[in-house]
């Protein structure tokens, strides 16, 4: 692996993730400003940024990141986090990562976000993209929308159709294939053309930045009732289950000694398990 080349790619990828973070936070703060006061009283929220550092499993310094959290009137809880970490994978995790079995050293940078909305008519959302380097180098990530009301959890729901279309358009020029109902997910993506792989990851980020604020704006004026809120809180319980047990970004962060506050900021602020 050409070290000068890979170092330039690391810098490029990290800068993209952090620029996307800034753009997403600005877009979400505009939505906080514009939400109707009749449904969302109080002051508009703003992101609070908190840096953190980590050590790897040997105790050596291993990079860190910045948490960006907002508890607002429209966004009940949203985190948009960037991290750039390095070190060695713990022995029990090395076999699960391409290129790490024989050489446990790694570097990883990425962005991850989850938004939980106060209004049950506005779907929750998750997105992450990352660049990982071991003796190999690849991109991974994905995005998925989670409507929380039964009447909105169908393939015919306008928000679902719009979200999937945006993701399909991002994938189309690169993969030319349809994606499933939940969203898109990809990992270990190394086509041999790094610039094209970065471009795909950037298109996923841009597609998210365009479509999700549009969906929030489309729905944030819809009033809700106590039954809607109850259903939202129950659905959030299932969301917690999937996020903790199956999400690759969550598992990667926990297995590599990431910041637990940042990783678990994806948990909803209120939830019910009846």
- Which term fits the overall shape? globular
- Give me the count of strands: 7
State the distance separating the first and last CA atoms: 53 Å
Sheet with most strands: strand arrangement: 1-2-3-4-5-6-7
Radius of gyration of CA atoms, rounded to a whole number: 19 Å
Q: What report would you give on this structure?
A:
A hairpin with a 3-residue loop joins strand 5 and strand 6 (about 135-145). The protein starts with a helix and ends in an 11-residue tail after the last helix. Helix 1 runs parallel beside helix 3 and helix 2 (about 160-175) runs antiparallel to helix 3 (about 195-220). Helix content is about 40%, strand content about 25%. Strands 1-2-3-4-5-6-7 form a 7-stranded antiparallel β-sheet, covered by helices on one side. With about 270 residues, the protein is an alpha+beta fold. The protein is globular, with a radius of gyration of 19 Å. The longest helix is centred in the N-terminal third of the chain and has 32 residues, at about 5-35.
């Amino acid at each position: 692996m050409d070290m000068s080349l890979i170092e330039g790619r690391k810098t490029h990828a990290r800068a993209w993730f952090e620029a996307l973070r800034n753009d997403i936070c600005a877009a979400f703060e505009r939505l906080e400003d514009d939400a109707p006061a009749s449904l969302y009283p109080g002051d508009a929220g703003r992101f609070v940024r908190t840096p953190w550092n980590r050590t790897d499993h040997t105790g050596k310094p291993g990079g860190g990141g910045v948490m960006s959290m907002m508890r607002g009137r429209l966004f009940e809880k949203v985190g948009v986090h960037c991290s750039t970490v390095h070190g060695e994978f713990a022995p029990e995790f090395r076999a699960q990562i391409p290129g790490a079995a024989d050489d446990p050293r790694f570097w990883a940078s990425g962005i991850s976000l989850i938004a939980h909305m106060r209004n049950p008519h506005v779907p929750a959302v998750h997105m992450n993209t990352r660049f990982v380097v071991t003796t190999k180098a690849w991109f991974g990530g994905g995005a998925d929308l989670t409507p929380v009301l039964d009447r909105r959890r169908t393939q015919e729901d306008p928000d679902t159709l719009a979200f999937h279309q945006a993701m399909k358009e991002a994938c189309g020029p690169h993969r030319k294939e349809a994606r499933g109902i939940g969203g898109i997910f990809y990992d270990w993506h190394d086509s041999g053309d790094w610039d094209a792989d970065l471009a795909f990851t950037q298109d996923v980020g841009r597609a998210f930045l365009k479509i999700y604020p549009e969906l929030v704006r489309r729905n944030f004026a819809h009033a809700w009732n106590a039954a809607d809120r109850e259903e939202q809180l129950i659905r959030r319980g299932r969301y917690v289950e999937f996020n903790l047990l199956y999400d690759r970004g969550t598992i990667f962060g926990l297995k590599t000694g990431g910041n637990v506050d940042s990783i678990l900021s994806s948990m909803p602020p209120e939830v019910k398990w009846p």
